[in-house]
Amino acid sequence: MSRLRIVLLVAFCGALTVAGLIFVRLAAPDLFRPTAVVTAGPVQSGRIRVAVLGDSDSQSYHDTLMLTDPRMRGGSRRATTWQWAEVLGRLRGDEIDLGQWGAWGTNKYRAYFDEALGHLARTPPKDDYRYNFAVSGANCSQLMRHPSRQAIRLVDLMDTEPQAWRGGIVLIRIGINDVGARDVLDALSRDRAAARPRAVINACIDAIGQAVTLIRRHHPDTYVVLVGVLSNADSSDKFDNWQSAREMANIDAGLDLFDNGLRKLAAADRHVYFLDDRALFRSLWGERDGQGRPLYKTLHLSPGWAVTNTTGDDPHNALVADGHCGVVWNTLWAQHLVTSLNAAFGLHLKPITDAEVIGFLQPSFAASARSALAMPASLSK
């Protein structure tokens, strides 16, 4: 055999070996990742680390690397429209560590390459806190599967500083893009036992369960919060749909199936806590009436601000124009989360007071008032 053929053969075999290693590494990452060893001792003093896995409900609104459309997340009011993690960072940044704010992540191909070589990886690129892996549009499969592999890549990052994550928290809020899809809700409204919705719900619970298992195996002293799914039937653009008691009861039963799956995961591990998101929504804005028709209440905040379950970038709406939680909802969500974490895990985070909520929201409502004054009388009617 000629020397050239030998060189080519060696190069070819080498390429196959590298490709094989890359495939195995991506397909079975735990084979190449030793479990983090946590030594006995007191929990690290200082701020509590908090990581986030999820979708657009948890991705920071002030990301302009991925969320480039100026109409998104508050539009012209984006400067004073905050997502719940951003609220936490501002009101409790002295106690909670979400990681440094910056541009994190690469395109998916670079992430595959980095991961295959044993480097930290994440995708897509976005401006956010370092420990916030939530990505707009993510569904439950993205916790463990490509392209995002949120849980796997977060654990890779946590494994570099296992001691720092003792007593830390991973919050998982995902599922609305699966369970809340219009076709899924339609199918549920007709039959709460319909096969496809149940398959979607069970797949979500399975993916979340895998993520919890991975986190708890590598970081046994880290807490996990599982957030229940909201009902898209409560969105103002869906008010004309499912206007019967039977349809709404069927939808609620399907969403209960999802939430009860998370409750079961939490019941099996004292380090895991279930947070009922629909219960919080009902406490703020209520729900449809007994016939399935919209009968939501108005939320009144002490300065005289009235917030309704409507859509628009003004803070008097529960939702911003692109359908995500508005600044009032996110601020009250952050307040509720701190209280829940203290109760669930015996933490001693300083509760977010109502006065702090009003103070934080003041710039948003002040901007709204200025806009109303500047608006021509014909448009303000």
UniProtKB/TrEMBL annotation:
Under the heading InterPro entries, the entry gives: SGNH_hydro, SGNH_hydro_sf
A molecular function (GO) held by this record is: hydrolase activity, acting on ester bonds
Q: Which residues lie in coiled coils?
A: none
Protein name in the entry: SGNH hydrolase-type esterase domain-containing protein
Q: Where does the record place the SGNH hydrolase-type esterase domain?
A: 100-303
Q: Superkingdom, according to UniProt?
A: Bacteria
